[in-house]
Amino acid sequence: MGEAALIESIMGLIVHSGNTKSECMEAIQLAKKGEIEAAKEKIKLANESLIDAHHAQTGLLSQEARGEKVEVSMLLIHAQDHLMNAITFRDLAQEMIELYERIKGE
Predict the structure, then answer these.
(1) Cα separation of 104 and 48, whole Å?
(2) Which of 4, 14, 58, 96 lies 20 to 30 angstroms, CA to CA, from 20?
(3) What DSSP string describes 26-71?
(4) Per-residue confidence at 71, pLDDT binned at 50, 70, 90?
């Protein structure tokens, strides 16, 4: 994989992870207003973005598995950090939506 393709994969990881987190934040805000179904739809969108982020990551992992070293750079570390935060944020957003749903139901 050339340097341009590597940068493209890393940027895809950052963008899709960022989209995941944004969708989750919107989901929390919707749940907070009692719009539970809309919040769940946002989580579905977040999951789609997360899948795209995982595809970008998988490309890099596959390259490494083929014996083609992936240069570890600050940009790659930043991308991985975004992915891990997006996953954590998604998990917490789902929990918060469930809590708001319970509160609304009482």
Answers:
(1) 27
(2) 4
(3) HHHHHHHTT-HHHHHHHHHHHHHHHHHHHHHHHHHHHHHHTT-PPP
(4) confident
Q: Which residues, other chains included, contact 14 with Cβ-Cβ below 8 Å and sequence gap of 6+?
A: 78, 79, 82
How many whole angstroms separate alpha carbon 29 and alpha carbon 33?
Answer: 6
Q: Which two tokens stand for residue 88?
A: 């954590």
Structure tokens at 3: 């340097």
19-47 pLDDT per residue, tens? 999 999 999 999 999 999 999 999 999 99
> Which pLDDT score is estimated for 2?
83
78 a catalytic residue: yes
